[in-house]
């Protein structure tokens, strides 16, 4: 049986249309899911929408709709984005689904029955926008307006509330981080979380009575669940919790939650504490990526500097956008979103490096070998060196992807692409046609085989372009996974190849629409 791999995106708030920041988190998960599938894993990749809470209730009122109709519309936007971005999710969770409500209520009951929930009053500074309470120390009084560190307005509230006994989890959480050094990544984020937990934890208010749009607390319907307890549960809803099905036993605990750094505390502190409190296993790893900024500020709807993924894809195409997002900024760091950088990557990496390599090699093969894979003669040490560098890629790229260092994995692949281009220049196969036809065949065979490696390995990042590349090499669809990256699976000399077509055309500035009066 194949090993399993369970990966999740955060579930997205449905208070507005998706932007590039949302697309980014899901893209990273999609890349990871595709990589693992190609590497022989039985993958489950889950995404979805977070549909409860006061923010959504307010947004639906503003749109003059009931919350359910409102969330149906906005959730659809996230579904459409997933289709447009080519995401390969196996499940799409909506927190308003019956299966999820049952899961969240079951988790609540486990926590309550294990003695981790009690009823009290909560008085504090609450931000509707951030859906969280802030401590006295965090709140600033600016001319009578109380403001949280995020810039959100907070208001004083005192309400009956259920509490989770988070303050009792400090030692257990620290022991858990110690025993599981890979649980939080990158390293800097892990240190941040450990510092936060060492600073002491306060019990967490986990129910609300001041609005209705949420999952009712079992046996006390005046309360709805705190949206984060509700939302985090989606990760186990997707594996059939509270039923212990084969899905649950195969996929839980999740291998990886990829999230943005703004929601790390919820995933790395609250979530493992909730799960341990309920007697369930915490996930294996949480990776917090950085933010995309525009004009130096986090891209967000509230700031009003959003970048629309749909427009980007329309302009540049899907694969170049996927490549840019995964290549330009180290995963884990913040990055400035710059359209000229997309064009730069398209020109230098995609057209000049990979596009040019394929174009040169395949057109020479078509012209000189009647569109068949050339029959190689004896390989020289230089041919063997290039093939060996392609052959060595899988281990290195796997190591980087397993650490979510996607940019580093790509750097390695592009190093081999550049090496292959230099090999073309050095061996000038076009000049061998008359002088040494067999040598020409060997050089071109070495190159098509190198391209096969590159195309197989780049599939998680640029699935459509790589499918075209592999079609051009006549690699059957069932021979495109990583176990085919072995010398015994090499391209068969003499195989017929289709007519070469350009895969990464040069970027051309779109011409403006002419005004003809
Ligand atoms: N609903 C919660 C998550 C609950 S998970 C149990 C939430 N939703 S969100 O829609 O606000 O954000 C979802 C993801 O988008 C987060 O990982 C967040 O970091 C990411 N991004 C939102 N804006 C972003 C950028 N400008 N840049 C990169 N990612 C950002 O939080």
Please sum up the structure shown.
The chain has helices at 20-38, 54-62, 67-84, 98-113, 170-179, 187-198, 227-232, 234-237, 246-251, 264-277, 309-316, 318-327, 339-368, 381-391, 393-402, 406-427, 432-435, 437-458, 463-472; strands spanning 4-8, 12-13, 42-50, 91-94, 117-127, 132-134, 140-142, 145-147, 155-164, 184-185, 204-205, 207-208, 216-217, 220-225, 256-260, 286-289, 292-294, 297-298, 335-336.
Annotation keywords:
517 residues; alpha/beta; 4-stranded antiparallel sheet; Rossmann fold; 47% helix
**How many distinct beta strands?**
19
Structure classification? alpha/beta
Small molecules bound in the structure, each named once: 5'-O-[(L-methionyl)-sulphamoyl]adenosine
Which runs of at least 5 residues are low in confidence (pLDDT < 50)?
none
Number of helices: 19
Strand content: 15-25%
End-to-end C-alpha gap: 68 Å
Rounded Rg: 26 Å
Q: Calculate the mean pLDDT score and round it.
A: 95
CATH topology of the largest domain: Rossmann fold
CATH architecture of the largest domain: 3-Layer(aba) Sandwich
Quick one: CATH class of the largest domain? Answer: Alpha Beta
Question: What is the name of the CATH superfamily of the largest domain?
Answer: HUPs
User: Can you tell me the number of structural domains?
Assistant: 2
Which outline best applies?
Answer: elongated
- What characterizes the major β-sheet? 7 strands, parallel
- Oligomerization category of the chains in this entry: single chain
Helix content: 40-55%
Subunit structure: Monomer.
Family: Belongs to the class-I aminoacyl-tRNA synthetase family. MetG type 2B subfamily.
Pfam family, one: Anticodon_3
Organism: Candidatus Endolissoclinum faulkneri L2
């Amino acid at each position: 049986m194949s090993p399993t791999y369970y990966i999740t995106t955060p579930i997205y708030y449905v208070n507005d249309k998706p932007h590039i920041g949302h697309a980014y988190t899901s893209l990273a998960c999609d890349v990871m899911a595709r990589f693992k599938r190609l590497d022989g894993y039985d993958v489950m990749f889950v995404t979805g929408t977070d549909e409860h809470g006061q923010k959504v209730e307010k947004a639906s009122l503003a749109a003059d709709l009931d919350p359910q109709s409102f969330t149906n519309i906005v959730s659809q936007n996230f579904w459409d984005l997933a289709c447009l971005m080519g995401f390969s999710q196996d499940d799409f969770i909506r927190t308003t689904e019956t299966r999820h409500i049952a899961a969240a209520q079951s988790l609540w009951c486990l926590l309550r029955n294990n003695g981790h929930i009690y009823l009290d009053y909560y008085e504090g500074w609450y931000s509707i926008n951030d859906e969280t309470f802030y401590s006295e120390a965090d709140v600033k009084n600016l001319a009578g307006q109380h403001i949280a560190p995020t810039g959100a307005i907070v208001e004083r509230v005192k309400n009956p509330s259920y509490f989770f006994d988070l303050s009792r989890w400090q030692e257990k959480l620290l022991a858990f981080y110690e025993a599981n050094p890979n649980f939080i990544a990158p390293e800097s984020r892990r240190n941040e979380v450990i510092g936060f937990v060492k600073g002491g934890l306060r019990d967490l208010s986990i129910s609300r009575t001041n609005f209705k749009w949420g999952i009712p607390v079992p046996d006390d319907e005046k309360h709805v669940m705190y949206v984060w307890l509700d939302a985090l549960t989606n990760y186990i809803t997707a594996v059939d919790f509270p039923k212990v099905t084969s899905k649950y036993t195969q996929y839980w605990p999740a291998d990886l939650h990829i999230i943005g750094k703004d929601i790390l505390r919820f995933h790395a502190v609250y979530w493992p504490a909730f799960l341990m409190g309920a007697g369930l296993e915490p996930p294996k790893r949480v990776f917090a990526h950085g933010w995309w900024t525009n004009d130096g500020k986090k891209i967000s709807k509230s700031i009003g500097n959003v970048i629309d993924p749909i427009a980007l894809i329309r302009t540049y195409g899907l694969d170049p956008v996927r490549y840019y997002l995964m290549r330009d900024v180290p995963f884990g760091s913040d990055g400035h979103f710059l359209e000229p950088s997309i064009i730069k990557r398209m020109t230098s990496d995609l057209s000049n490096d990979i596009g040019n390599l394929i174009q040169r090699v395949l057109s020479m093969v078509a012209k000189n070998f009647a569109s068949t894979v050339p029959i190689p003669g004896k390989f020289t040490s230089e041919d063997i060196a290039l093939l060996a560098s392609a052959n060595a890629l899988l281990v290195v790229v796997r190591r980087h992807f397993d650490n979510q260092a996607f940019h580093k994995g790509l750097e390695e692949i592009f190093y081999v692409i550049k090496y292959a281009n230099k090999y073309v220049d050095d061996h000038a196969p076009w000049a061998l046609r008359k002088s040494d036809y067999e040598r020409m065949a060997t050089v071109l065979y070495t190159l098509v085989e190198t391209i096969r490696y590159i195309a197989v390995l780049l599939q998680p990042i640029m699935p459509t372009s790589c499918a075209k590349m592999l079609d051009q090499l006549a690699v059957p669809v069932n021979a495109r996974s990583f176990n085919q990256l072995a010398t015994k699976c090499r391209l068969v000399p003499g195989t017929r190849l289709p007519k070469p077509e350009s895969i990464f055309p040069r970027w051309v500035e779109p011409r403006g629409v002419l005004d003809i009066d």
